[in-house]
Amino acid sequence: MPVTRMSRLFGRTLREAPADADSANHQLLLRSGLIVQLAAGVYSFLPPAWRTLRKIEQIVREEMEAAGSQEMRMPAIQPRELWEESGRADSYGPVLFNLKDRRDRTMVLAPTHEESVTDLFRKVVQSYRDLPQSVFQMQTKFRDEPRPRGGLVRVREFIMKDAYTFDVDDDAFQLTYNAMRQAYYNVFARCGVPVVAVQADSGAIGGKQSEEFIFLTEIGEDNIILCSGCGYAANQERAEFTRGPEAGTVGELEEVETPGITTIEGLAEFLNIPAQSTAKAAFFLVDGQPTFAVVRGDLEVNELKLINALDALEARPLLPEEVEEAGWVAGYASPIGVDPALVIADPSVVDAGGLVAGANRVGMHARNVTYGRDWKAATVADIAMAQPGDACSECDDALAMQRGIELGHIFKLGTRYTDPMEATFLDADGERRTPIMGCYGIGIERLMAAVVQANHDELGIVWPRAVAPFDVHIVPLGSSDDVAEAVSQIESQLADAGLQVLSDDRNERAGVKFNDADLLGAPLRITVGSRGLTEGQVELKLRRDAEPTSVPVESAVEAALTALDSLSG
Known about the structure:
six-stranded mixed sheet, 3 domains, YbaK protein, alpha+beta, single chain, Rossmann fold, globular, BirA Bifunctional Protein, domain 2, 14 helices
């Protein structure tokens, strides 16, 4: 295997990271010269980064194939008609890149491939004898993210491993799903990133259920709700919790003056009652329809739960003028008298008994507002956001919250795509049936960023050997013939042993070379200097260790192999 020389390496290291790089992985990937930004959310991957990405891909490939999946390739450009057939052309929203070809046909740059693979299924699979089927690809995806952030965490162009499975029924699918789930654990463990599987919202992909594989880190963009008592874990968007306390008494409806009191906190203080004794009104435009949402005063509305409960495409808070146009009084709104068709209520207010709510007049609230007697909602559903300290829905222990990065997402799609796209097969009785489908995604570049975030110190990256761009970083000190000869010999033997070697042949000071070696983070550094060679020694230092060790130059390669093998356990 050829040796890479620092003097010829495409890219350069930086002493300082750009000011807008706000996470350790983003700073280190930029400083080490592994990535360079072209535009917002669009990056070039220089040779060392590309080596790592290919190693990650190979790990993913091996685990997918071990789980019974076959690699293939689908086009990145898709006819929009496929998305219209599945019903996602509009629901996917502005994240979907649309373009026109020269014949004025609308195409999309694929953010994912459920439609394409379902179309393939109906063209290729005919009989139950052809099932189960499992395929995957490493494919560039495109998403017009409104706010690319975190370096490689949220970008507009990225490589995804996406896999798709088709089974004859739910029981067969569950076996497939379990195998894929284990494959994901294997991938992340081999890459050196700890993960937790959490219940998740399926979002624009859809389907019955989904799980995210989350790397818990303070720089994450997702809030993860966790229970240490029973192990319950869910994305905050999806998390459930137990609402308490028991319902209060129900009294006569009466109005009370509350001048200038427009917040739940102010109302609770003014009336000397807990926030949980109040009803909170929140106003949204849901698929163009003004919607009155009601939760208990100590809770917040979860917009994604709201969207899912109403089977809607999108929701946003109403603007002040839109609240007024709907006839509601911000700060004093009441569900009393509102058309139930416009109201959605959380169980926390339905089961609470009498609460304090607005009277829909400025400066006035009402006591003992009771669901069923005084007002009703067309929809009652869990629309509340779980928070730290809430009771776990599984064991009643207090929930905690941590930040995290989603590295993988697996979905139980059911017939979400196979039904509308009429993808069927003939069963043993000659009857047409719809297959049960699953999909499974891993962001390759995002996983590389997580590897760096999970494996670094104050000096630079500490690559796990399995995904390191180089196994060994050789640092020659001095330009004597003895140093050159020893370096050449070590390089040759390491290359013959199949190792990927980076050799710093630059005319730089020792400090610069050592700093760059720490920054680039190869698992093993070999230092060859005139002083050590006078005693027949070279230095070996594992990147994770604090101090080097000296070994005889003639056994340096054997010692290097032993040291690297110690990292594989």
